[in-house]
Amino acid sequence: MPLSHQRRSALSEQVIAALRSQISSGEWPVGSRIPTEPELVEQLGVARNTVREAVRALAHNGLLDIRQGSGTYVVATSELAGVMQRRFADADPRHVAELRSTLESAAAKLAATRRGEKDLKQLDALLVRREEAWQSGDAEAFVTADATFHLAVVAASHNDVMTAMYADLGEVMRDWLRADVGAELTDRSNMDHTRLVDAIRVGDAEAAAAEAASYPFQCRPARVGPPGRA
After folding, report:
1. Integer Cα distance of 64 and 32 in angstroms
2. Is residue 162 packed enough to be buried (19+ CB in 10 Å), middle (13-18) or exposed (0-12)?
3. Dihedral sign for Cα atoms in the order 90, 94, 100, 102
4. What separation, in Å, do the N-terminal and C-terminal C-alpha atoms of the chain show?
5. So what's the pLDDT on residue 42?
6. Which of 153, 148, 167, 174 is nearest to 106 (CA)?
7. 77 by DSSP, 3-state: which?
8. Checking phi first, is residue 69 left (phi over 0); if not, alpha (psi -120 to 50) or beta?
């Protein structure tokens, strides 16, 4: 929808808000390339310089990455997410696993008592998508599908603060999972999450919490050679 024309600074802020909304809503997921500058000009009905200024502002804030000759890509869902990714880029992987375990266990426990039918349908669909991604052998597709599933578990807690915090840590979690999975997928990397969804479905809070807490550590076996399919 074209934006209303006001003074340049206010209009630039509107464009920044519009682009940020596309990112935070998931319309432009992390890793995706956003529309080209001419496409954004046409979609928003503003001048090229205004679009360029907005894109540069979001790149400066860590949401976008401008790659010459390739395009502009989403690298974080919010300014805080970009800060988190840079802050914890060199964190101990086990510490990231412990954080993921702690947050997801608490969220799963809440989800078991607060989830609605819409949450359950979403979890069922994402569980299937996660399995399909693993079957495809595409490691990056699996990382995305797994991260999306786990975010849905947290969202089913209906704790907005916890969900926002987990989303802001999303790329940190993905980086950890990429390192864990590696270039190839193994049976070990595809831990069955059906029991977690079942526990949430029947309202077993303790079982849901225990299942969610165990996954990060089950997925990190000691490796003595290059990974491969079992």
Report:
1. 10
2. middle
3. negative
4. 51
5. 94
6. 153
7. coil
8. left
State the Rg of the chain over Cα. Answer: 19
Residues near 67 by beta carbon (within 8 Å), at least 6 away in sequence: 73
Give the orientation angle of helix 139-155 with respect to helix 170-181, to 10 degrees.
Answer: 140
Phi, psi at residue 197, to the nearest 5°? -65, -40
Give residue for tokens 């800060």: 83
DSSP string covering 131-180: HHHHHHT-HHHHHHHHHHHHHHHHHTTT-HHHHHHHHHTHHHHHHHHHHH
Q: What is the DSSP letter of 188?
A: G
Identity of the amino acid at 23: I
Q: Give the 3-state secondary structure of residue 66.
A: strand
Mean pLDDT, 10 residues at a time, the chain of 230 residues: 56 92 81 92 94 93 88 85 84 90 96 96 93 87 87 93 88 84 63 92 97 68 32
Tokens standing for residue 12: 């630039």
Counted residue by residue, the chain has a size of 230
At 30, is the secondary structure helix, strand, or coil?
A: coil
Angle value at C-alpha 179, between 190 and 58, nearest 5 degrees: 110
Q: CA nearest 228: which of 169, 171, 187?
A: 187
Position of tokens 């426990």? 109
